[in-house]
């Protein structure tokens, strides 16, 4: 390898690290926002039939499920990342996270669709956790 080639080799690595840093920052920012929203509004929006303390705990349970899905996402994305390429899987991971977050913003409340609202919220949290594990 010539000196010109070795001097250029770190550039793609920097771009990859930069893209990963941006993606991770966005994903963890979402996790932070979700944790804040659990204590501020989720008890009334998704769990209004429960006592406030129980509703907040149920909200944090959905938060915890996102973390429990991470190892599965890591296994699946790691396996396919080796076969298909890590760049493709990183993009898929970011798109999954973005789609789940967007859909979470469109979720109807408990008053609109009943128990399906917290179930859909839980499903989207699992998708988010899976995507973060994939990153």
Give an account of the 3D structure.
This protein is an all-alpha fold. 87% of the residues lie in helices and 0% in strands. It contains seven helices and no strands. α2 packs antiparallel against α3 (52-68), α4 (70-84) runs antiparallel to α5 (86-105) and α4 crosses α7 (116-134). The longest helix is centred in the first third of the chain and has 36 residues, at 10-45. The protein is elongated, with a radius of gyration of 19 Å. 25% of the residues are buried.
List the helices and strands and how they pair.
Blueprint lengths: L2 H6 L1 H36 L6 H17 L1 H15 L1 H20 L4 H4 L2 H19 L1
Sheet with the most strands? none
Radius of gyration: 19 Å
Strand percent estimate? under 5%
Number of E-state strands: 0
* Helix content, binned percent: over 70%
Helix and strand content put the structural class at: mainly alpha
| Terminus-to-terminus distance | 31 Å
| Low confidence ranges | none
Number of alpha- plus pi-helical segments: 7
- Strand and helix order: HHHHHHH
Mean pLDDT: 85
Structural shape: elongated
Could you list some keywords that capture this structure?
135 residues; mainly alpha; 7 helices; 87% helix
Q: How do you describe this structure in short?
A:
The chain has 135 residues and is mostly helical. It has helices spanning 3-8, 10-45, 52-68, 70-84, 86-105, 110-113, 116-134. Helix 2 runs antiparallel to helix 3 (52-68), helix 2 packs parallel to helix 5 and helix 3 (52-68) packs parallel to helix 7 (116-134).
């Amino acid at each position: 390898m010539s000196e010109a080639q070795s001097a250029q080799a770190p550039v793609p690595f920097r771009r990859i690290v930069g893209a990963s840093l941006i993606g991770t920052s966005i994903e963890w920012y979402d996790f932070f926002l979700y944790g804040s929203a659990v204590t501020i509004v989720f008890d009334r929006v998704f769990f209004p039939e429960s006592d406030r303390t129980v509703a907040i705990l149920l909200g944090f349970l959905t938060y915890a499920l996102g973390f429990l899905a991470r190892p599965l996402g890591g296994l699946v994305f790691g396996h396919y990342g080796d076969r298909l390429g890590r760049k493709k899987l990183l993009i898929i991971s970011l798109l999954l996270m973005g789609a789940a977050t967007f859909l979470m913003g469109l979720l109807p409340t408990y008053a609109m669709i009943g128990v399906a609202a917290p179930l859909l919220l839980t499903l989207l949290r699992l998708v988010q956790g899976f995507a973060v594990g994939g990153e």
